[in-house]
Amino acid sequence: MTRPVLASGAIPWRLVDGEIMVLLIHRTKHKDVSFPKGKVDPGESVPQAAVREIEEETGLGVALGANLGTVHYTMPGGGEKTVQYWAAHVTEEAIRNSSFVPNREVEALEWATVKQARKRLSYAADRDILDVFVRLSEHNALETFSVILLRHAKAEPRSEATPEDRLRPLSDAGEDQADTLVPTLAAFGPARILSSSAERCLRTVTPIAQHLDKAVRVYDGLSQDSWEAGDIDALRRVIGKVVRRGKNSIICTHRPVLPDAARELALATGSLTGTYLREAVELPPGGFSVFHFSKTNPGAGILGVEVYPVKP
Q1: What is the mean pLDDT of residues 78-98?
Q2: In total, how many domains does the chain have?
Q3: Residue 205 belongs to what domain range?
């Protein structure tokens, strides 16, 4: 059986005089109107591909927001295609910096109201995704921030050279994992990077911090030593600060700490707890989960969770 073609994209959106406008692309070759999307290249992650395709097709640099789900359809020439979509807020700065010019792939961009977009879109699958987008907007859940819970990459085992657990470095494979994570983590537009004080966590977030030119904020409350000492209040303070700031954040910590970190995210946002939290943080080294929250009303709870394994 032929494997489905994997693609990803987004509904770029902005507010104009208080009204939500979405971005449509008019494709030259296909003579249709759709949302920006494209195939996932070999070695590329699905979120990475979405951000790349949006920039290539529209000239806009965006970060991924709430997950809108997946559509499946049969292509005109046969074969199945699976497309993952996100909402993507387009800032005024991104619009000013757009590099779009009409080309052989996309001949025009159109900002349209939701009502206009529903009439202009060429495909039922795009209208289905637009319906999901509208439901989020009706629940004040379009303007979001994300919190990424990241388990540190693969570390060297404890040895005589590093008798203190907090000093264990990453293995060579772990260093490679940390580098590989960069484009996928960057797709969610992290503004803050927080880490346990353990060396293996600090080394895991060093590549993404360098890529984004951001400082790493180090917290003992995220460390395994603090957790083993039973200092849950320290972890709670860190999580509470992240939620209050309402900015896209990466939190790098340890396997035993992750379940409590997820639980504190739920408690800080009035979310129901349940097995979904445990499942979201059953991560291998280098794995991470993305928790989405309403920026204007984080007390509405967790809007969605995306889980990414070692090779997202």
Answers
A1: 93
A2: 2
A3: 144-308
